[in-house]
Amino acid sequence: MERKSGLKWGQPVSYRVIYGDTDKAGVVYYANYLKLFEIGRTEWMRDILGKPYRELENSGILFPVVEVYVRYKAPAGYDDLLTIHTALKDISKVTLTFYYEIKRHDKILVTGNTKHAAADTTGKLTRIPKEISLGIKNL
Amino acid sequence: MERKSGLKWGQPVSYRVIYGDTDKAGVVYYANYLKLFEIGRTEWMRDILGKPYRELENSGILFPVVEVYVRYKAPAGYDDLLTIHTALKDISKVTLTFYYEIKRHDKILVTGNTKHAAADTTGKLTRIPKEISLGIKNL
Amino acid sequence: MERKSGLKWGQPVSYRVIYGDTDKAGVVYYANYLKLFEIGRTEWMRDILGKPYRELENSGILFPVVEVYVRYKAPAGYDDLLTIHTALKDISKVTLTFYYEIKRHDKILVTGNTKHAAADTTGKLTRIPKEISLGIKNL
Amino acid sequence: MERKSGLKWGQPVSYRVIYGDTDKAGVVYYANYLKLFEIGRTEWMRDILGKPYRELENSGILFPVVEVYVRYKAPAGYDDLLTIHTALKDISKVTLTFYYEIKRHDKILVTGNTKHAAADTTGKLTRIPKEISLGIKNL
What we know:
Helix content of chain A: 10-25%
CATH topology of chain A: Thiol Ester Dehydrase, Chain A
Largest interface: A-B, 19 and 19 residues
CATH superfamily of chain A: Hotdog Thioesterase
Distance between the termini of chain A: 10 Å
Oligomer: homotetramer
CATH architecture of chain A: Roll
Radius of gyration of chain A: 15 Å
CATH class of chain A: Alpha Beta
Number of domains of chain A: 1
Mean pLDDT of chain A: 93
Number of helices of chain A: 3
Number of strands of chain A: 6
Structural class of chain A: alpha+beta
Largest sheet of chain A: 6 strands, antiparallel
């Protein structure tokens, strides 16, 4: 399913806001959207790449985050049923960039990007393995 | 204390990393730096503006976040003693932008910005009250 | 569905463990099970009581927690698919007590109780409204 | 400093409540007190035992939590300056039990216990090393 040229979208994932996600303003605390982004890209990998991130890790390749951008347009409230929409936005020899939209029904509440560098288990930056980059280019 | 032209720095704040901040990679989970940013700007307001954010809220003015950018340069680990350095980077008629550096000793681990819009208690965007903007310009 | 005398069980709820739930020991951080308990009792209320907690709040009745007990038998790991099993264990004139089991497949990893007191919106303790207590007794 | 027979108290630790700790009820979310307990026992170990938990880990001995009990007497609010009081309550051949009081000024808001089992790095339960248990008995 493609919605924007160049973006490879995964299946939306549902998330119900709990008390623990909110703050005293009655809305989701700003840091917690980064957890929703994680849920989104994990399920993207499982669904689209066909590999849980856990398996990538076990094979010795990690994708630590190097950059995050978030745009907060409207707040999500307690007990709201959100959907997390995740797309691969960009792939280079050493980085992956994901794009996210957090929605309540059709309304976009929050958008963002996360950029990840490929690294081995010692933390050393490395090239994205061919198996993964080819898999992604063939999507 | 000024370190860059145009930046109004507050006092650094110390933070000791706990287990609950880390993730299975053994380092601080990427969302948790946004809590450190909150600690930083809260203490900036208390120290530099001379007003706890709590008092601003009580007087009917809120500063919800509208944008966040984070750059992760190196990971912070368990039990690391970090310092949070916070500066006001920009002020417009309706927004405040803070800049942050998270350090371990002299090493910068993470940097970021948060942009906040002035709003009243109903969530309606509003001008930053003169009392605050003048106070900031006179820093 | 009853599995133990006196316990009124709701439908199990699934939860997939994310990186953000884990700590450097590679397992779910001990505080985060309390979020799973919240998910469990919220869905119990929605399903069994037929009232989202949000509606109870809106009608002026809150159930702040007064006591928590947790028994950690075995750790949950990253990407584990857990199920949260929630039962009402006890109801008095002023308190509700829930019992929880967190499982991976058939294995019980964590159990716990939370006890909640009925309060009005000012925080004053109050009797559980008849409408709710009768509804529960008729389950 | 002893305040109750049999309890070995450490120095109180200060903690300032942030937005990210609170929930939509305007008070600290119930799970977050377990992070304060962690801060308390970590500083207890550093101060009283003279060994950061990090060093115990590095020497191959872990203390995963097996049981938690929390009693919520009164809520802590945003920007409250809390103190975390931690004492060793009990030591057996294989477990340590800590007791906590979270206070605002002299008022006790929350109390609790955490029980920890000694384990090696594979997770296998083990005896508490003599060096530690003797150190504790001589306090």
